[in-house]
Amino acid sequence: MTATRIRDLLGLAGFAALATWLLVRSFYGALPPIHAFAGASLYVVAIAEAMLGFVIRSRIEKLRVGDGPNQLHPITAARALALAKASALVGAAATGVWLGFLLHIVPLASSVRAASSDRAGVIVGLVAAFALVGAALWLERCCRTPTDSGERPER
């Protein structure tokens, strides 16, 4: 499986930002207010993936991958890698959505009270989405196997 390309994530985020900006520009008045913790659920996923990355990295570095107790099962590592790849795409799309909102409300914030109050929730969501992308890329990197140098440490 190839590594997630940053270019693909940027393209997805850019497309989502443009689409969201166009939609929000047309329907902003009909949308409910954005609360400060609207996108905060992504923080929980980002923290969980970062912690999972540390666990997987530790087990791989100590060569504790296998089918036995206290070992990382290879299927678990593959599932974590699939989770990381999917989360990177979701985080990039969410980053684009929050960025599209931000691009619309920043110019209006000085004159429209709703845009001013929505700004905090959009920024929280944008940072959470960006954190999810970072955690997903970290987890993906932690799932890599060490290169075979010919000298393997004893177990």
Number of helices: 4
- In N-to-C order, the SSE pattern is HHHH
Q: Beta-strand percentage?
A: under 5%
Helicity, as a percent range: 55-70%
Number of β-strand runs: 0
What sort of overall outline do the alpha carbons produce when their principal axes are compared?
A: elongated
- Major sheet: none
Radius of gyration: 20 Å
Mean pLDDT, to the nearest integer, reads 89
Instruction: Compute the separation of the termini in Å.
Output: 28 Å
Strand pairing plus helix content: what structural class? mainly alpha
Low-confidence runs (pLDDT<50, min 5 residues)? none
Provide a descriptive summary of the structure in words.
The protein has 155 residues and is mostly helical. It is built from 4 helices and no strands. Helix 2 (41-61) packs antiparallel against helix 3, helix 2 (41-61) packs parallel to helix 4 and helix 3 packs antiparallel against helix 4 (113-142). The longest helix is centred in the middle third of the chain and has 35 residues, at 74-108. It starts with 5 loop residues before the first helix and ends in a 13-residue tail after the last helix. The mean pLDDT is 89.
